[in-house]
TrEMBL record:
InterPro entries: Mem_transp_PIN-like (IPR004776), Na+/solute_symporter_sf (IPR038770). The keyword Disulfide bond does not apply. It is a multi-pass membrane protein. It is found in: Cell membrane. Gene3D superfamilies: 1.20.1530.20. Keywords: Cell membrane, Membrane, Transmembrane, Transmembrane helix, Transport. It holds the Pfam family Mem_trans. It comes from the Bacteria. PANTHER family: AUXIN EFFLUX CARRIER FAMILY PROTEIN, TRANSPORTER AUXIN EFFLUX CARRIER EC FAMILY. This is AEC family transporter.
Length: 327
């Protein structure tokens, strides 16, 4: 009887995962298919991506953070778990690619960066909110806010150190540019606004609340669809060997390192540890490809890794969700 109950629970969990994961990947596939058939242009995907990044996700952040009693203090282990996992997989893959002669200098650093840079806004937000609901909102959005500035600053420093001859000025000028862009980043601004509203205990009500909620409700579907449209642009190209290595690092090693630290080294609420792990389990972020283009290093491999990791994540994300539910 005990074995039957355990089997029934696992079967129910598998059905829940199917109902959760398949619709999301179906929306991504729809975006890719419509772009591939020429029904919609790449400009539609670009415009939709801008809307998600500048309007829909910031509205969702303000809606969540403005609730005075939402969430709890973040344990220091939460930050150590996620960014410790980033550092481990980034360093490991960079060293491995150099040792094997697969990449050198800036290309190796960018490959390591890709293995630790998650597709958060367009993939992580919809999936993590679907899995953890209200319990995951605060840890998700706080991590989302600091993820980009920390990772991009670290990438700029390491890439500049990898090779002295780089385009576009000194490392100081580049870091200043990163700082200016972050000061105008809608997600960072939304987090600051939400935190101010929460600290002053000013809730969103009436018409303002209805407008913010309406924008926030569009975030998940629009993000997934725009990701599918973008994938038609970032095709599988050369450098598949490096792309496969990056994909393994991103979908297996990165979440594995975070899971070990979050669940077995530090103590924190299960939802926080789960959000950190799921955040790490997302496929390679498009920012990695943009960085590769900027430095003209590893573009083909990183572009292929974006597409390959997104495809493979249809299996690995479900596996990580199942593991976290059994933990």
């Amino acid at each position: 009887m005990h074995d039957f109950i355990r089997f029934a629970r696992r079967a129910a969990l598998s059905m829940d995962l199917t109902q959760l994961i398949l619709p999301m990947f179906a929306i991504v596939l729809a975006g890719w298919a419509l772009a591939a058939m020429g029904v919609i242009s790449q400009r539609v995907g670009e415009g939709l991506s801008e809307y998600v990044f500048a309007v829909a996700v910031p509205a969702l952040i303000v809606q969540t953070m403005a609730q005075p009693n939402e969430g709890a203090a973040i344990h220091v282990g939460y930050w150590v778990a996620y960014f410790g996992g980033c550092a481990l997989v980034w360093g490991l893959l960079t060293l491995f690619m150099r040792w094997r002669g697969m990449s050198a200098g800036q290309a190796a650093v960018i490959g390591g960066f890709a293995s630790s840079q998650s597709n958060t806004v367009f993939f992580g937000v919809p999936i993590i909110l679907a899995v953890y609901g209200d319990a995951g909102k605060v840890p998700l959005f706080l991590l989302l806010a600091v993820h980009l500035p920390i990772m991009m600053t670290a990438a700029t420093v390491l890439i500049e150190r990898a090779d002295g001859d780089t385009p576009g000025g000194t490392i100081g000028a580049r870091l200043a540019g990163v700082g200016k862009r972050l000061a105008r980043n809608p997600i960072v601004l939304a987090l600051v606004l939400g935190a101010v509203l929460r600290s002053l205990q000013i809730p969103l009500t009436g018409t303002v609340s209805a407008i913010v909620n309406a924008f926030g409700a569009t975030a998940s579907t629009c993000a997934l669809f725009s990701l599918g449209v973008s994938m038609h642009q970032y095709r599988l190209r050369d450098g598949l060997g490096v792309a496969a290595l990056i994909t393994v690092g991103k979908l297996v090693l990165h979440p594995l390192f975070v899971w070990v630290i979050a669940f077995h080294v530090f103590e924190m609420p299960p939802a926080y540890a789960g959000v950190a792990t799921m955040f790490a389990a997302m496929p390679v972020g498009i920012n990695s490809y943009l960085l590769a283009l900027r430095y003209r290093a590893g573009e083909a491999a990183v572009s292929s890794a974006v597409v390959l990791s997104t495809i493979v994540s249809s299996v690995t994300v479900a596996a990580w969700i199942k593991l976290l539910n059994w933990h």
